[in-house]
Design brief:
elongated, mainly alpha
């Protein structure tokens, strides 16, 4: 014997019928916070901000590049401010 039951209801009605919590307010607050953070970080990804960061003398990109070459300079003996024992 087969029994079929068709129920026509919205997802919200089904969650209420099954006793599941309404997570819509929590989802909305999380999505609003994510949107706020993304909009804040978009300012850092603007082309002008990226160029300013990469090409200023105090930029972190330039410092990272210098740190990359520092070990080679020290091995070649070109670094005079090395601590002597």
């Amino acid at each position: 014997m087969n029994i079929s039951v068709n129920v026509d209801c919205t997802p919200q009605e089904l969650r209420a019928f099954l006793g599941l919590p309404d997570v819509a307010p929590m989802q909305k607050s999380i999505m609003d916070e994510m949107e706020r953070r993304m909009l804040e970080s978009m300012e850092q990804l603007a082309p002008a901000a990226m160029m300013r960061e990469w090409f200023t003398p105090t930029g972190t990109m330039q410092q990272s590049l210098m740190n990359l070459f520092q070990p080679g300079r020290m091995q070649a003996g070109g670094d005079t401010d090395e601590a002597t024992d």
